[in-house]
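Pasting as-is:
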Amino acid sequence: MTQAELGECLGLTTVHVNRTIQELRRLDLIRLEGRRLDLRDLAALRTLAEFDDGYLFLEKRSRAERWQRPLCLSVHSR
């Protein structure tokens, strides 16, 4: 996925997407090498984004149980 495509999906400009990616790299929260994006510090990224995953789950599970499954993000070209 290109930065332009990501911006289109999120309703952001390519410039904003690029600057955000650069800032996340500077903070060592992500690493982008070739077509692979690694989340370096998920807890810090969630804190920075003020993310609350509570609305994502319909069944009642503890916070610890929610994050026991592996998280994987792959970036592929078309």
